[in-house]
Amino acid sequence: MTVRFAGVIGAILGGLRAVAVSDTLNGFWPLVGRDEAYGTLARGVLPPALTGFFAAAMAGAIPSSFNSALNSTCTLFSLGVYKPFFNKGADDAAVIRSGKVFGWNR
């Protein structure tokens, strides 16, 4: 539990820091809104060579999060809707197949 909590804090700490010092940042970098705070803070803190790596990490994290949400949704459908309501005696292969059909992953 402590490791998960530390991960959540680590994930949002940069954004919270950017919002907390937004008045200071406005003196140096023009912030249009809170949507640009995290990227502006990263540009200001990271050296230019690491900014590309940061952008690549963010670009990789977005599809990963989407895939995780899709996987969770398919699992919830298969075990929470398909098996109890449509096919109570379904074996594992049928439950997995229903999740693939629900997620359009044939």
TrEMBL record:
It is a multi-pass membrane protein. Keywords: Membrane, Transmembrane, Transmembrane helix. It is found in: Membrane. The chain crosses the membrane at residues 44-62. GO terms for cellular component: plasma membrane. The keyword Membrane applies. Gene3D superfamilies: Sodium/glucose cotransporter. One of its GO terms (molecular function) is D-glucose:sodium symporter activity. The keyword Nucleus does not apply. InterPro entries: Na/Glc_symporter_sf, Na/solute_symporter. It comes from the Bacteria. PANTHER family: SODIUM_GLUCOSE COTRANSPORTER 4, SOLUTE CARRIER FAMILY 5. Belongs to the sodium:solute symporter (SSF) (TC 2.A.21) family. This is Sodium:solute symporter family protein.
